[in-house]
Amino acid sequence: MGSRASTLLREEEIEEIKKETGFSHSQITRLYSRFTSLDKGENGTLGREDFQRIPELAINPLGDRIINAFFPEGEDQVNFRGFMRTLAHFRPIEDNEKNKDHTASEPLNSRSNKLLFAFRLYDLDRDDKISRDELLQVLRMMVGVNISDEQLGSIADRTIQEADQNGDNSISFNEFIKVLEKVDVEQKMSIRFLH
Amino acid sequence: MPAFSCAFPGCRRDLLVIVLVVFVGIGLPIEASAPAYQSHGTEGSYLTNVTNTKKAFPVLAVNYKHVRQPFEIALWILLALLMKLGFHLIPRLSGVVPESCLLIVVGLLVGGLIKVIGEEPPVLDSQLFFLCLLPPIILDAGYFLPIRPFTENVGTILVFAVIGTLWNTFFMGGLLYALCQIESVGLGGVDLLACLLFGSIVSAVDPVAVLAVFEEIHINELVHILVFGESLLNDAVTVVLYNLFEEFAKVGTVTVLDVFLGVVCFFVVSLGGVLVGAIYGFLAAFTSRFTSHTRVIEPLFVFLYSYMAYLSSEMFHLSGIMALIVCGVVMRPYVEANISHKSYTTIKYFLKMWSSVSETLIFIFLGVSTVAGPHAWNWTFVITTVILCLVSRVLGVIGLTFIINKFRIVKLTKKDQFIVAYGGLRGAIAFSLGYLLSNRHQMRNLFLTAIITVIFFTVFVQGMTIRPLVELLAVKKKKESKPSINEEIHTEFLNHLLTGVEGVCGHYGHYHWKEKLNRFNKTYVKRWLIAGENFKEPELIAFYRKMELKQAIMMVESGQLPSALPSTISMQNIQPRAIPRVSKKREEEIRRILRSNLQNNKQKMRSRSYSRHTLFDADEEDNVSEVRLRKTKMEMERRMSHYLTVPANRESPRPGVRRVRFESDNQVFSADSVPTVHFEQPSPPSTPDAVSLEEEVPKRPSLEADIEGPRGNASDNHQGELDYQRLARCLSDPGPNKDKEEDDPFMSC
Question: Does pTM surpass 0.90?
């Protein structure tokens, strides 16, 4: 499996991915072998059913949404670059990156990009607002079936009321950021990819 | 005690001093002249009995011996608490000097006083310390340990605790031995093992001192948990090293086998302590499942099981501190799901109280023992010890952080490192361990003196300067945060997200194992340890319920009237459905009211439970639960005849009466409207399908169905008043209460 992986992934591609996502060489190769192990059809792309085969996603309440996050708008297959681009959001923020000036485009794993990724998981219709219904859907997925709709509805209402500042009865991205300002997003949304 | 109502601050201080002197003046002569009274007492009674003379019946006799010991103990404790009281009346002082310093100074003064009188000042008895004074503090710390930051940093904490302490011990022991080899110092008799033993005693960071000082500086969560966690977990290392070197010093030689056995011993001690603690923790959780009928003794179970865990592990020479902490941590989520709100408050209060008293006594006794203890002063040795303490701590922290940062997602900054190094205070545990050294060691007095000096230095110098340094370096402080349902939801959301992404990467990291533990907990453990149907409740819901309850309490307390009826959810469209747990519906009502008043609410913050001085919620809860419920009861009498109405077209609240049973209190409340709250009552209750509740309640004596809604009927019409009925009931409701879930973002406890 290892040799196959390295022949299919060219050096230039690795360099490009490295520049785009900030992963290191070894991380990219390691994730590539993971990519190929998921790719049962062996056609260089992953489809939804490949993801659904992962046991942890099957039992995860947000499994479907996570899977959808990997696929760009309207497409059904994702190649390795897209795979890495999504995973780049979860790279830990390094110290030297924190101090970079903001002339360059923001790296994928910056705090606001991480939050944007999470926000997009709530906001399915991409209207840049988390509406009450979208919130309800997520709550329902997380809480299970035992709780009544009314109860969930009141939680959702309360949540929106707490966060909403401009009175539009939904949570915009800025309000989302504000609510999470006390949460250590850099830590909470980072996976330690082994070197 | 005279009221401190003077206008001038100086006046207060004088009064305090006078009171103190009076107390001390009374207490000490009594102790001093105890033997004299004792002989009088026995003599007098003997004479009377035997000779049957015409001696007058002693109307007033003094028999001090009879009450001597409890009297003295009570007097000491009272003295300590009066001192503590006094400090807080002098605002400027308590702002500058940490309490621990003041208490030691008081101890010094009292010890000096006793010595001047000619009596022998009491020394901090190691037995007393380890068995009575230390456990409450540790239990308080362990029970309210913030789990999430702890588990997130447990690797770092363990590295600091184990490797840091080992480094400190060997560095200090080795260098001191080298020092003793120098002829000019004059300490030729100290061998390596004795030095290492000394090193092991003085190198461990002390939880009591750390707690006392860090509590007042409100440092950010990460640094706090690092230092605090380290101070708790290094107990295992200290125990092993201490016993090891004691044994070796007796024998005199060390073989490789001994070293190997030492390492094995470390694992046995720490894991054994953890195991013992876990066993007792589960026992306590299991017991709490059945306490629904005997609510009054619930807190005792928590205390006794924890204390038994401590004693059991001490019996086997395992780490008692770790056992105590693990016991508290393990039992807490389950116990809090089972016990009543009152019991929870009781536990919180008692733990705070005991740990506060213990801490005060420990510091005062430290001062007294300093005056009392045998001292052997050697400038070089003592000064070197102090310097080496600092140096080895700094080196250790820097070196370890360098290694640890390679593995951490959020790196430790230089400022964090500084505070971690500077916050490594030594305290009473070191002193007691030193005191336990048998007299065989010819250097015992020297060691004791050095230990005391180190303790004084760290507590006074480091303790006093750490606050200005924190300000100066602009170290991140603790962020005060109100419990926010948003944070809760989004954090759980992120947890799931990260677990999923870890799954995609094939990476079995932090989230993966946490999720596995959660699932295991939910499927297997909770059903055994949590009473009733509660174990199915998702944590989010429990959190939400609790938050709403707290807010409701505050609203009632502030006497706010709900200004508008909730309009967001139209009542008439709610389909009646058979919900197995009616309590949810009740809370729904409350929630609606609360939401409509969200803007007016004063959101108070719950202080972290490991604050010694303040428990913010206390007053509100007391007020509400006692005063309001008394009023409620009066209302209830008046409205007993009303029946609950369940009309089909509802828009406005109706008065209603519900009988509620409390097994614990054996009272029957009809949680009726709190008098200060008024709701529109447009139409008189018509009862097409009125349901009498009285007959329903006795059928379901279980806790969960205290308010028995008419099954299958939309009982949610009774908005306002019923909400408050339920609310008032909630306040003494022996309902489940979770303080903090393990996975939840750290909130002030």
Answer: no
